Amino acid sequence: MEEVTSEDHPASADPALNSETGKPTADSVLPSSQETPSSPSGGEAGAASPLTSTGDAPQASSPSLSSTPATTSPGSTQKSTFTIGGTPIQQSPTPMEIPHETADNSDYGQMEYASGRPPSSMDTMITTLDPGMAPIIRSGGDISVVVTSDKECKVSAVRDAFQKVFGLATVTGQAAQSNIAPQPEGYAAGLKGAEERIENLRRGDKIDEKQVTVSIESFITDLLPDKWFDVGCVILSDPVYHISLQVFTQATPIPTEYVLQAQTLTPSDYSLRWSGLAVTVGEVIAKAIPGVSATDWHLNFTGMSRRDMIYNSSLALAGLYKEKLPKGETL
Predict the structure, then answer these.
(1) Yes or no: domain 143-324 corresponds to CATH 3.30.559.30
(2) Where is the composition biased (Basic and acidic residues) (predicted)?
(3) pTM (2 decimals)?
């Protein structure tokens, strides 16, 4: 709004001015946005326009008041500018509206078990606070597996793999022995050792004859001339559906000197020499390198633990088993 002066509204034409002095009365100076109350007769006294003093009236008694909208760019905050006595005064800007951000729960929608059952909010909270509760929460369902070992690296690896594939699965461990050398040598010896652990459990009535069983046996083999590797044989036996599966872990290179030492420490007349060595390669490595575990030296040599190797192979084993099961028997 442009500033309005007394030149546009002479005193003789404006009833709000003193007829003698031509000065605006004190009640006549109002902002442009205000309106005077209605007259008792029902008519309106009319809104007094902002005025600027003229003549010899003191500046303080006749301030010039006008409202001018500030020019704003698109998206900026609208401001109003008032002029009093030629001095521009800005009103406080309109409070900026802050958009509310919505929580992104897209990742949660992708979290689900292989069975298609999404995790409940309680499951997520519990496993976040205590990751060790995940095996307990995911236990149950129609899948029950016994691992022929009580070693945590084997049992937990198989459990995590089957629970990932089936969603719910109960996996426990039961110690079992084989009738071959402590350090099996060759694929045939590794497979036989894994099978004998299952047979010994069943013969000893330690598991039900219908129990699904997973067995793991590590062995060494010379896959290349003068180059030795450690490999794990992982097998599954389901006597109800007559399912028998075999997979192998990745081959981990072994420095040849450790294999030669294990062979030297094995007597020539060792009764189980047909299946392997009397001393394991892990035992030789642990003695040669202080601080290295005899059962998990793989981590120091490759950066991957033996448990992770068993887990990866168990994932494949569980996937194969799920495909072999009759339809309707999976979760």
Answers:
(1) no
(2) 1-11
(3) 0.60
Q: Which two tokens stand for residue 224?
A: 């290349």
One pLDDT digit (tens) per residue for the chain, 331 residues: 444 444 444 444 454 445 454 555 545 444 444 444 444 444 444 444 444 444 444 444 444 444 455 444 444 445 555 555 565 655 555 555 544 444 443 333 333 444 444 455 555 555 555 555 555 555 556 899 999 999 999 999 999 999 999 999 999 999 999 999 999 999 999 999 999 999 999 998 889 989 999 999 999 999 999 999 999 999 999 999 999 999 999 999 999 999 999 999 999 999 999 999 999 999 999 999 999 999 999 999 999 999 999 999 999 999 999 999 997 554 4
Question: In the block, which residue shows the tokens 């292989």?
Answer: 114
The SS3 call for residue 271 is coil
Report the distance separating Cα 188 and Cα 175, nearest Å: 22
- Give the tokens for residue 250: 């990745």
